[in-house]
């Protein structure tokens, strides 16, 4: 499509979305999308000023053990749990999976308390539900988002989400050259299948960890899912203790979500503009518009709500999401994650 054609398409989308838009339909940040079990102000995020070092804005847990060694089934490498979670050079299980990491991705910058990008996003960029999937995104898009974090145009609608505050401070401390290196690195890595979506009424009883990763609890108890998405690691020990970048996620969604999501994503469902108009028929992105297929369902839902709340600023997306209810957001995230 020509540039003029793309601009005309975007103009039509904006006009259609604006005509349908009403004030936001979700009254408060859905806690499940932000890594919490209930609304409210607790647990409060650590104080985070504009001049704060990134790590000072983060929730910090107990040090990982140095005498516990982990091994994964598809590699001969072994690491201590401490090395796996080391802030300034976390273990890389599969160095042949990706190009050589830039210094900022592999080690961060300890003097500024700026942790390695690979710690949270993994060396292969797959990420987890509580942060962001960055592999295979257009480099220009990654740079745009880093700049938005830096400028205060991308924040969390739930102020308790401390790792978003840390990401804002990381962007403020990165040099332009480091931003470019990280963006080009993650953009060069092909996305690997990551999310299994399951429609169900009941789910493993789970609770969120320090940064919002839900983990099933011992005892194999089940509980009603209700109107939410529960996203958990397919192998909790691999993900939580070993940071296994080949071990994906399971997203449990309400029954009927996929059919409703398909209607919204491909046709608009009378409430929005179809996602496929900008993200492509296969949801793999077009130009600088990012791919969204098979990304973490709770991350997708969180971004839709942030757009609606205005804490993630976007002249294009805000009218598109303005009319969505929480059920709509669940359905869209479920369907897109399933592709």
Defining traits:
single chain, alpha+beta, Cytochrome Bc1 Complex, Chain D, domain 2, three-stranded mixed β-sheet, two-stranded antiparallel sheet, globular
Architecture overview:
By secondary structure, this protein is of the alpha+beta class. It folds into two domains: 3-37 and 192-337, Cytochrome c-like domain (Cytochrome Bc1 Complex, Chain D, domain 2); 54-187, Orthogonal Bundle (Cytochrome Bc1 Complex, Chain D, domain 2). Helix content is 36%, strand content 9%. The protein contains 14 helices and nine strands. The chain has helices at 3-20, 31-34, 81-84, 103-106, 117-121, 139-151, 162-173, 176-187, 236-240, 257-267, 276-279, 297-309, 317-321, 326-337, and strands at residues 69-71, 78-80, 195-199, 202-204, 206-208, 214-216, 222-224, 230-233, 249-253. It has a three-stranded mixed beta sheet with strand order 3-9-8. A two-stranded antiparallel sheet has the order 1-2. Strand 5 (206-208) and strand 6 form a beta hairpin. Helix 6 (139-151) crosses helix 8.
CATH architecture of the largest domain: Orthogonal Bundle
Order of helices and strands: HHEEHHHHHHEEEEEEHEHHHHH
Strand order of the largest sheet: 3-9-8
Taken together, the total number of domains comes to 2
Shape: globular
Please give the radius of gyration in angstroms: 19 Å
Number of helical elements: 14
Helix content range = 25-40%
Characterize the main sheet: 3 strands, mixed
Remind me, CATH topology of the largest domain?
Cytochrome Bc1 Complex, Chain D, domain 2
